Amino acid sequence: MMTGKEEELVSTAVGLIANHKSDYTRDNFNFVTEVDLRYGKIKNKSQIAKKNNDRIFWDNKLSYKLSPKWALYTSLTFESQFDDGFKYTTKDGKDTIDYIENAFMAPAYITESLGFEYKPSNSYSIRFGTGTARQTLILDNRIKPLTVEEYSQRYPDRDPIENDQERFGVEGGKMFKNDLAFQITGNMDKNFTDKLNVKARYNLFANYKKLNDPSHRLDVTVTAKVSRAINVNLNGVLIYDSDIISRVQLSETLALGLVFNLPR
User: Fold this and answer.
1) 78, 109, 143, 100: which is closest to 241 by C-alpha?
2) Is 107 exposed, middle or buried (0-12, 13-18, 19+ CB in 10 A)?
3) Is residue 116 within 8 Å of residue 76, measured between CB atoms?
4) Which of 48, 66, 79, 208 has the most CB within a 10 Å radius?
5) What is the pTM of this model?
6) Coil/strand/helix, residue 154
7) Tens of pLDDT along 195-233?
């Protein structure tokens, strides 16, 4: 027997995905630039609207072919997010903001890599970045990690902290960190049928100072065409980065949306 009222869960989500890829080849040289922009928000009943997707990704790669399947490459990659991200809590039964976690350029990652690329076909490739450097930037004072002294000056009414803060691997009082690393980047972009495409990108970043604890990121997008202007997207992301959180993070989204191809 049920008593009382059963609360109805109402959820509304809106998202935008924009992709661009240019591939230019001349003689043995090849240049590829790829942009992936994603932003989405979800609003549950009686809760604050929260972003459920937010990414700025821009990858540029110049390579020189050494053989039919191998090339020497250099690349430059930029990653960040558009909007503020918050940690939420519940107070007096209401959904409220606890603190800010990230924002535009906080963090941002700039990665330069040099190494060898194996490309057996146009659908698959893997890069071995033996010489890789990555700069981590935190250019927002709301997110910048604080020293003990800076924390006491900013929050005089709070209990003091015992140690300097650290965020995204950046030490307290700093807004920049540079890492030297070995990097592996795998890409797949394959049409299995004329209506089904699978894109996947895997990145391993192993800091030479802690080779036994590399970071991993896997992005997978399955796109099925329903009609010329409508498709269904299934997106999955797996992330492990101990500088952010010491556990695997997973997310997935399923969306039905309109498609605009430029130029037509």
Assistant:
1) 109
2) buried
3) no
4) 79
5) 0.91
6) helix
7) 999 999 999 999 999 999 999 999 999 999 998 889 999
Question: d(Cα 214, Cα 38) in Å, to the nearest integer?
Answer: 25
Count CB-CB contacts under 10 A for residue 64. Answer: 13
For 66, how many CA atoms within 13 A lie in the half-sphere containing its CB? 9
- Least Cα distance to 81 among 33, 39, 142 occurs for 39
H or E segment and range at residue 152:
helix 148-154
Strands 176-193 and 196-207: antiparallel
Contacts of 210 (CB under 8 A, 6+ apart): none
Q: How far apart are CA 112 and CA 78, in angstroms?
A: 9
Collect all residues with Cβ–Cβ distance below 8 Å to 34 and sequence separation of at least 6: 19, 20, 21, 22, 57, 58, 59, 60
Lookup result for tokens 């993070």: 249
> From CA 181, how far away is CA 42, in angstroms rounded?
36
Instruction: Judge whether 11 and 43 are in contact, CB under 8 Å.
Output: yes
Task: Tell me the backbone φ, ψ of residue 42, rounded to 5 degrees.
Answer: -130, 140
Q: Give the type of residue at 91.
A: K
Give the type of residue at 24: Y
Q: What is the CA radius of gyration of the chain?
A: 22
| Eight-state DSSP code of residue 103 | B
Give the single-character DSSP code of 5: P
Q: Which residue has the tokens 């300097």?
A: 164
How does pLDDT run across 68-121, given as a tens digit for each residue?
999 999 999 999 999 999 999 988 888 899 999 999 999 999 999 999 999 999
Q: Is the dihedral of CA 117, 34, 253, 244 positive or negative?
A: positive
Task: Identify whether the C-beta of residue 200 lies closer than 8 Å to the C-beta of residue 188.
Answer: yes
